[in-house]
Amino acid sequence: DTAVSQTPKYLVTQMGNDKSIKCEQNLGHDTMYWYKQDSKKFLKIMFSYNNKELIINETVPNRFSPKSPDKAHLNLHINSLELGDSAVYFCASSQVMGAENEQFFGPGTRLTVL
Amino acid sequence: DQQVKQNSPSLSVQEGRISILNCDYTNSMFDYFLWYKKYPAEGPTFLISISSIKDKNEDGRFTVFLNKSAKHLSLHIVPSQPGDSAVYFCAATSGTYKYIFGTGTRLKVLA
User: Fold this and answer.
1) Peptide bond between residue A8 and the one before it cis (omega within 30 degrees of 0)
2) Given CA atoms A33, A76, B101, A26 in this order, what sign does their dihedral have?
3) Rounded mean pLDDT for each run of 10 residues along chain B, 111 residues in total
4) Is B32 in Cβ contact with A105 (below 8 Å)?
5) Do residues A23 and A4 make contact, with C-beta atoms less than 8 angstroms apart?
6) Is there a contact between B98 and A107 if contact means CB atoms under 8 Å apart?
7) Residue B101 contacts residue B37 (beta carbons within 8 Å)
8) How distant is the Cα of A6 from the closest Cα of chain B, in angstroms?
9) Looking at chain A from residue 19 to 38, which residues have their Cβ under 8 Å from any Cβ of chain B?
């Protein structure tokens, strides 16, 4: 019974394509996040949504557009993919916003742009 | 600017011995610290945390120590078990939901 799930697990695509990664959490959490882990293993926050509302956008190119159709879902759409977008993308959720509310992570989506 | 640093990319420890993973930070505004554990092909999972008002927090075999003056925290695992072999990330935050992660330390516990 997966708490935070992501699809697909692997995504290989050509430069210039548009792709989406889906995330769903069944924990009843209010806040969801997208993180990017690059080749240097830095795990950096990209976006945060609280109750379907965008709270933070961490200097992410406009080609990345998160969409939250409801509290349980936060999808990531990427336009005009570039080589530098290759990374592992993790979705996460927490009960409420705040430091002491641990974040639960999905298994990650490994994106490879050729 | 890397605000959270884990300077040891890897660590090997014999089963039953103590594992000590270290983490340094530069931002004095950080007031809450967490350790996450990550197995291959899985997302990070929460392990233990500590608030800046404390200098130690213990949960079973896992203890986190915080030295605010040195801006240093460490995770102690004792006794270490083969199932503890994973990548450990420390993270820090300044009273918000925004976690700043280190680059991780790969722990290998040898049977």
Assistant:
1) yes
2) positive
3) 90 97 95 94 93 96 97 98 96 84 95 90
4) no
5) yes
6) no
7) no
8) 10
9) 31, 33
